[in-house]
Specification:
nine-stranded mixed beta sheet, four-stranded antiparallel beta sheet, alpha+beta
């Protein structure tokens, strides 16, 4: 469990309790017939909370049984009234998203009234059926699990260079992956992770060791050291605190060619206690040959320079789709100075059509945002990503407001990456996708 997630949840709970003390709860609309746990509260918890609030998952306390939940009733009421929980940062006026866990006003009122009335249990016979959770996973039970062969030792303090571990899949046939989830054994150390698909014809890191951890500094070839951070290989999965597993709609999947390797790129951070990590990724294969292939693209600015003592510093990147694609989801990534993030379509007349607005970016909850309805985009569509940063003393997470901040791997540096997933024809890989077709006018 990432230490900063624990801290974030703990802060939210403490804040919720303070709200209970200093601010009265909403008026109970059902004073004569107060909500009960089994009939009214449990269905909300199952749908909106238990993905994290169950044993073995990210939240520090499970909210599965009445006995587990009752002591937290005041904190739950205050947290949902302030909308600290469930965590969700998309502007409700921009776009609709399938993974939005937000509560309705009626659900917030139920949880508030239940707490105010004494958090009664009610009749256990009113309980809805328990949801099915796969033990140890938030996806269906994996068809195949790839684990880093050797654990990575992490020191108690200091910076840790990006750590790589290359693992052969031993696939003798092409595989289509419909679901994937990354599970660290030492999540308190994992700042983020990227798992790349290295096809058998790729030269990337070909002289690097197999099956054991290494960093770019360990590589004797200076060219290969420089290439460690630069690859055209497709991403299988990106993981960061709060991010969701990948679960693609029927008929869509990611592609792993036969004979491929998986390259785990791990960014570890220290927390005062030495430890280790041996991350795994679980894969669920598509049951039928999909019609569309999912690829992960990104808009980023490696040359960003954020002046010291500056709030609301704006960075913009634009790109044009070379071929038709179906837009599926977004995953914005920044570090501790990140403040807000936005994805837009830029029309030819200069007008802007927002797709996602994250008005309050939260480094400790880096969420993915999956469109409720995938959106078809024609070749030539111009997309832009805009990021805002707070490098001032008003930012309580700012490591050093007097520093000039540039791109870098560590959290005291910054990044600006707008990941987004698109679906393309199944026979089109990333290389083919970036081959722009000539327009009718260009053919003449």
């Amino acid at each position: 469990m990432p230490r900063f997630i624990y801290i974030s949840i703990f802060q939210a709970v403490i804040g919720a309790l303070l709200l209970v003390i200093f601010y009265p709860s909403q008026k109970i609309s059902a004073a004569n017939n107060p909500p009960t746990f089994y009939k009214d509260v449990l269905p909300i918890l199952q749908t909106h909370c238990q993905r994290c609030h169950r044993p073995g998952e990210v939240a520090p306390m499970p909210l599965v049984t009445y006995e587990e939940t009752k002591p937290w009733a005041p904190a739950i009421a205050a947290a949902v009234q302030s909308r600290m929980m469930p965590p969700w940062f998309a502007d409700p006026n921009t776009g609709h998203f399938a993974d939005d866990p937000s509560l309705t006003a009626a659900q917030i009122e139920i949880l508030t009234a239940w707490s105010k009335a004494g958090a009664s249990s009610g009749d256990p016979k009113d309980a809805p059926p328990a949801p099915h959770w796969t033990k140890g996973w938030n996806i269906a039970h994996p068809d195949y699990i790839v684990q880093m062969p050797k654990a990575v030792s992490i020191p108690a303090s200091g910076d840790v260079e990006y750590t790589y571990e290359i693992v052969p899949t031993h696939f003798t046939q092409d595989r289509w992956v419909q679901m994937s989830e990354l599970r660290p054994t030492g999540p308190q150390y994992v700042h983020h992770a990227v798992v790349y698909i290295r096809p058998p014809n790729s030269d990337w890191l070909r002289h690097a060791p197999m099956g054991k951890p290494f960093t770019a500094s360990d590589l004797p070839d200076p060219v290969e050291r420089a290439q460690a951070h630069e690859t055209t290989s497709d991403l299988l999965l990106v993981y960061a605190p709060g991010s969701s597993p990948d679960q693609w709609p029927e008929g869509m999947a990611k592609f792993i060619p036969a004979g491929s390797d998986l390259v785990f790129q791990m960014h570890y951070t220290t927390n005062g206690t030495a430890g280790s990590d041996q991350t795994s990724i679980g894969l669920v294969f598509a049951k039928q040959l999909p019609k569309q292939r999912v690829i992960t693209l990104q808009l980023n600015d490696h040359a960003l320079i954020i002046p010291p003592n500056t709030d609301n510093f704006r960075v913009e990147v634009q790109g044009t789709l070379p071929n038709d694609a179906t837009l599926l989801s977004f995953f914005p990534h920044m570090h501790l100075r990140g403040k807000a993030f936005e994805y837009d379509i830029v029309h030819d007349d200069g007008t802007i059509q927002p797709l996602l607005r994250v008005n309050h970016y939260h480094f400790h909850w880096q969420l993915s945002y999956k469109l409720a309805q995938p959106r078809f985009l024609k070749a030539g569509t111009k997309l832009r990503a805009v990021a805002w940063y707070d490098n001032s003393r008003n930012n309580p997470h700012n490591p050093d407001p007097d520093a000039m901040v540039t791109w870098g791997d560590q959290t005291y540096n910054e990044m600006m990456v707008g990941f987004f997933d698109v679906a393309v024809p199944a026979n089109m890989d990333k290389w083919k996708f970036f081959v722009r077709k000539p327009t009718p006018q260009e053919k003449q």
